[in-house]
TrEMBL record:
Pfam families: Aldose_epim (PF01263). SUPFAM superfamilies: Galactose mutarotase-like. Residues 1-18 have a biased composition (Low complexity). It comes from Pseudoxanthomonas kaohsiungensis. This is Aldose 1-epimerase.
Amino acid sequence: MVSDEGGDGSAEAGDPEAPLAPGPLLRIGSGELQLEIAPQAGGRIAQIRYQGVEQLVGPDDGFPAAIAWGSYPMLPWAGRIRDGRFEFAGRQWQVPANLGGHAIHGVSMWLPWQVEAHAADRLELSLALPRDQRWPFGGSALQRIEVGPRRLAMTLSVGAGDQPMPVAFGWHPWLRKPERIEFHPEAIYPRDGHGIATMPPVAPTPGPWDDCFVNTQEVIVHRHGQRLRLSSDCDHWVVYDETAHSTCIEPQTGPADAFNLAPRVLQAGESLQAWFRMEWD
């Protein structure tokens, strides 16, 4: 149960390591850039194909866990909340700890999103956030996915309902393993013995990584003879490249464990928006 009294509520948590079927797929794009989107599976992009080359680890690639395929929004928090606990508005709150004793990637990964608009080159989806054991504040989210001949543009907006709430969100693309990436962050958040980000940020350290960085530059991905540029107005990026088959490059509005390290608050009725773009040269 979520409360200010404690109680971990684990039985109510989505299991990020349990299989998640994509459900019905919607398609947008044509020509060189085509997308398959799974509204019922967390509003995620199931696959991106550019010039016929698959860009993402897909639902049929042998990694069926909810956390491990496609490209999905993370909200109303991104990354881990330490022990699922945080302080807000003078109270202690507990959300379900569902991975390694921590709460990971928000609640939207498992929830079905509503289709608001669907055209040949765009899709708009909405989500009403729960107000229960998983997340005590309610609120809502909107995402827009648009494609052009060489560009995928994604926009996310998270809004508070009738009460204030903390917020941090972002995107989690499981990119098929690149030959190399060009990544020049300004700083890294050190991780403690529990693998959780800590303050203050320090000079970047060599990989492999499962880390959060301060970064304001494009990230360039080289794979299969293609050059993919990733950009965002987010100034925090997580890079996870410890697996042999994929690298996750995740722009987000705040650091991992943001509710404890650098809380951002939406007042009742307020919203926060961010964008993320993939562009092929």
